[in-house]
Amino acid sequence: MDRLNKILSDERYVLYLNKIKLHEKGRKFCKHNTKHFLAVSRIAYIMCLEKKLDIKKDIIYAIGFLHDIGRWKQYESKIPHEKASAALSRSILERCGYTKTETRVIISAIENHRNSNNTPIILNNIIYKSDKLSRNCFNCKVQNECDWTIEMKNLMIKY
Q1: Given pLDDT bands bounded at 50, 70 and 90, which one contains residue 153?
Q2: Which residues contact 14 (CB under 8 A, 6 or more apart)?
Q3: Where are the domains of the chain?
Q4: Model's pTM, two decimal places?
Q5: Among residues 3, 25, 53, 58, which one has the fewest Cβ atoms lying within 10 Å of its Cβ?
């Protein structure tokens, strides 16, 4: 997990996290922060273990910690955050020692984490599901104001 810890201390990564934090300061709905990133990572890792997939733990966690890092660009420029996150992640992954092959896998999962039609690529599908399952709707004070349909809301813990 050394490379993941390099991501967490990467100067640009920290800058992007702080930009998201500023934009979400008054946000009453789920936030895009390290708590969310860790939940996505852990759920995805459990799902990969259950499916007996041979994917390195730090690859899964890198996806989880980078998948929303471009959220600030969506707030500022209306750029879809999955595209912004993928673009911003490339140089971070390079600086933190991920190979070109690993980077392609990570970027693909980031680019597709909002795409429910990921079934041919199992990891992308897992990240999509993990992102949704990470939300604690069952404990949310503003659940009734959320745009998610009742079917989308996590009203029971699954992972």
Answers
A1: confident
A2: none
A3: 2-20+31-145
A4: 0.91
A5: 25
